[in-house]
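Action item from last meeting closed. Structure (768 res):
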């Protein structure tokens, strides 16, 4: 039903009216009045500090309340440490105390309101900062601020949009369909178009209340962090600023509208099927403002309630987030199941674009190389990747030259990439015990006592290693390496502030994947997207990552890595397209999706990494084959017992053989021509390994229509009219690219010939 719009300016006398009673934070928000402070609209800690210093009563009142609650809680932590209530050698007692203190902290954060609750939610994803008991408890944090009055929400819409635009909105329900501390959502109809829309209305005064809390947290947070972890590497103030900026930006709905629109534009411009499989709700700009957001109403199921198609849905969602991380540079960092809907046609809709983080080009390049090394198993290079991404402070860079650290990082990331969450991680490290057996093992180990704390730690460590595989086990070597590097360099790694939100987003996605598949591996599931990116992106960073992956020793392509890439490319093409899934299940009569996608990439008129690799290896095959064929043909003329060999033997046996005569043709063959042809043929690889690589690239990736790596022919022996039509259309589409590719292949042949001759000459000079 519609409602009458109030005349004149919006009145705020009733802002303190809160359904079901009042609370401190909602009163704090209501005190600001009708206007948003201009200076607080962009996050600047010094500007915010100056603003609230001019309002000392509010700052003192809120600061005192925050300091009192958090200070009392911190005092308990200090007393716990002084009285030994949290013994490092008793995991059960330590965990019990952590859970108790975390529950107390959780209640304090809820009392202090949404700003503190959101901080707790962010910290719950930082296992590098908080013990397990805190992480587990804070993950359940939800704010409990009651919704504000519906009449206030309607007057807010009228004030923000103006009477004319506001009159287009007809409310289907009087009450909000969703409510949170910062705003609430109403189900409505746009009278002008007849379309159902969702109208999100921001709580008046939210910006000032949030900014005040962030300013207080920025003052108190670093102090509390240093009390709790005096040796920590974390830039606590930097973390608060990163979080504070995101939080203030979240209150500007024009930014949220822009983020959603830019994501949708990027999906629309994609040249693969991902753009048809995921979307953001369309924002109605004429019905939106800084504090009002109107978007299309999307009907769908939460991603954790999908059921049988969850595997493909998780793959699509992960691919969308990888596209944001590595391509668009604007990452949605609040992917909880309520923000991920699956429509009836199995498309994924990503809601709530207020909380995002920006990933720079340099960070994208570093992350891409890291992922390429991770999924390809090049774990020995990951330590350098971590340094490039900012995980190692400048003063600790020298630690990366330590082989023990490189080995430890490789072991840990190899175990993490294996999949299966914590259970899979332990299994990869060599643990054969169940969770119950490990708990019993922990109880037995805690009974071991030494003469002092240090001796107790060493005895327990040795006992644990002995009980989980002995001194030669992977765990034992890892323990020795980590202990040595910790002793030599102290705490080496820290999570940079920009990566905290990235970690949070992908941790949530991994949790969604593990809920439907206990063996889910984020690294393995990411490989199909990374493979397509490496084989299609023409940027220098992608080419570099691809060639590092394929040409590990600098010259010879790894057949195994080529096969992995080809199969992953095929998997991505099939998974992203509903038609591809049907083809896999035998329900499609058209050309396989992987075939069409692979051919389009291979014959792209603009070229690309896949084309470069195919031409490079095909030219190498052609060069090696040509040189081998020429050698074989000439060898017939110079074979043993042949005319030229007999002529050479007669000359050497005659009296003239003692004279300094020019070499015979046979001597020229043996001494110069044959070695040169052999060198040219083998330079850069033999025809056997090149043949294998070309077969993989042309067969396993674009030319199979069933399971990746299958030997089943992609095209039926007797193509149907539909296949013939598709093939003809595809041939017309690819014709310009094929013509350009032919010229490029000719250039590749000349380049390969020059490389072979140059290598042969260099080798001969070195051998002389």
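Sequence:
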């Amino acid at each position: 039903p519609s409602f009458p719009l109030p005349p004149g300016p919006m009145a705020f006398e009733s802002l303190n009216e809160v359904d079901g009673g009042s609370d401190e934070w909602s009163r704090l928000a209501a005190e600001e009045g009708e206007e948003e402070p201009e200076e607080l609209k962009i996050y600047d800690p010094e500007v915010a500090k100056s603003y609230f210093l001019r309002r000392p009563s509010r700052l003192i009142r809120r600061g005192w309340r925050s300091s009192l609650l958090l200070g009392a809680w911190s005092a308990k932590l200090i007393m716990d440490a002084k009285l030994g209530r949290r013994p490092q050698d008793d995991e059960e007692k330590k965990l019990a105390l952590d859970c108790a203190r975390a529950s107390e902290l959780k209640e304090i954060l809820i009392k202090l309101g949404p700003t503190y609750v959101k901080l707790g939610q962010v910290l719950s994803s930082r296992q590098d900062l908080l013990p397990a008991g805190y992480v587990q408890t804070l993950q359940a944090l939800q704010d409990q601020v009651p919704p504000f009055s519906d009449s206030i929400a309607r007057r807010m819409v009228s004030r923000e949009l103006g009477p004319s635009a506001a009159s287009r909105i007809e409310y289907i329900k009087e009450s909000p369909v969703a409510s949170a501390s910062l705003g609430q959502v109403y189900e409505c109809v746009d009278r002008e178009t007849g379309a159902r829309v969702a109208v999100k209305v921001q709580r008046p005064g939210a910006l000032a209340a949030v900014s005040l809390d962030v300013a207080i947290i920025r003052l108190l947070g670093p102090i509390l962090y240093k009390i709790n972890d005096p040796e920590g590497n974390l830039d606590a103030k930097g973390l608060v600023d990163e979080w504070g900026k995101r939080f203030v930006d979240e209150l500007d709905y024009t930014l949220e509208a822009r983020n959603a629109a830019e994501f949708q534009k990027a999906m629309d411009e994609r040249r693969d099927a991902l753009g048809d499989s995921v979307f953001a709700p369309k924002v109605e700009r004429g019905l939106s403002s800084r504090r009002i957001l109107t978007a299309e109403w999307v009907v769908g199921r939460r991603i954790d309630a999908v059921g049988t198609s969850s595997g493909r849905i998780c793959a699509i969602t992960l691919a969308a987030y990888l596209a944001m991380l590595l391509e668009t540079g604007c990452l949605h960092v609040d992917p909880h199941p309520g923000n991920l809907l699956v429509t009836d046609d199995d498309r994924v809709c990503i809601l709530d674009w207020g909380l995002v983080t920006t990933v720079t080009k340099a960070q994208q390049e570093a992350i891409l190389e890291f992922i390429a090394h991770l999924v390809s198993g090049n774990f020995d290079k990951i330590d350098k990747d971590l340094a490039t991404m900012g995980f190692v402070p400048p003063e600790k860079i020298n630690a990366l030259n330590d082989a023990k650290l490189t080995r430890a990082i490789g072991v840990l990331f190899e175990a993490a990439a294996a999949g299966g969450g914590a259970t899979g991680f332990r299994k990869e490290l060599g643990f054969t015990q169940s969770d119950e057996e490990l708990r019993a093992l922990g109880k037995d180990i805690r009974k071991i006592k030494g003469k002092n704390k240090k001796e107790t730690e060493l005895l327990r460590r040795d006992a644990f290693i002995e009980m989980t595989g002995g001194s030669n086990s992977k765990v034992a070597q890892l323990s020795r390496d980590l202990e040595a590097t910790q002793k030599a360099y102290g705490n080496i790694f820290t999570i940079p502030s920009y990566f905290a939100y990235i970690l949070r987003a992908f941790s949530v996605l991994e949790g969604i994947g593990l809920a439907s598949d206990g063996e889910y591996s984020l690294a393995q599931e990411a490989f199909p997207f990374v493979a397509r990116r490496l084989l299609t992106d023409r940027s220098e960073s992608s080419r570099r990552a691809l060639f590092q992956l394929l040409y590990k020793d600098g010259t010879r392509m790894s057949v195994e890595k080529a096969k992995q890439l080809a199969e992953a490319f095929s998997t991505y093409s099939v998974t992203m397209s509903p038609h591809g899934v049907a083809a896999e299940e035998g329900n499609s009569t058209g050309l396989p999706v992987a075939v069409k996608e692979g051919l389009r990439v291979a014959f792209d008129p603009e070229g690309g990494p896949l084309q470069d690799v195919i031409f490079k290896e095909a030219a190498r095959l052609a060069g090696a084959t040509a040189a081998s064929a020429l050698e074989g043909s000439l060898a017939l003329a110079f074979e043993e017992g042949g005319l030229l060999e007999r002529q050479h033997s007669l000359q050497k046996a005659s009296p003239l053989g003692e004279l300094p005569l020019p070499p015979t043709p046979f001597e020229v063959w043996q001494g110069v021509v044959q070695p040169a042809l052999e060198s040219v043929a083998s330079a850069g690889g033999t025809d056997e390994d090149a043949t294998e690589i070309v077969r993989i690239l042309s067969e396993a990736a674009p030319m199979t229509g069933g399971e990746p790596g299958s030997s089943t022919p992609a095209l039926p022996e007797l193509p149907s009219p539909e296949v013939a039509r598709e093939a003809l259309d595809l041939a017309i589409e690819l014709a310009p690219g094929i013509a350009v590719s032919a010229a490029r292949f000719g250039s590749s042949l000349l380049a390969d010939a020059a490389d072979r001759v140059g290598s042969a000459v260099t080798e001969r000079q070195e051998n002389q």
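Note appended to the action item: The chain has 31 helices and eleven strands.
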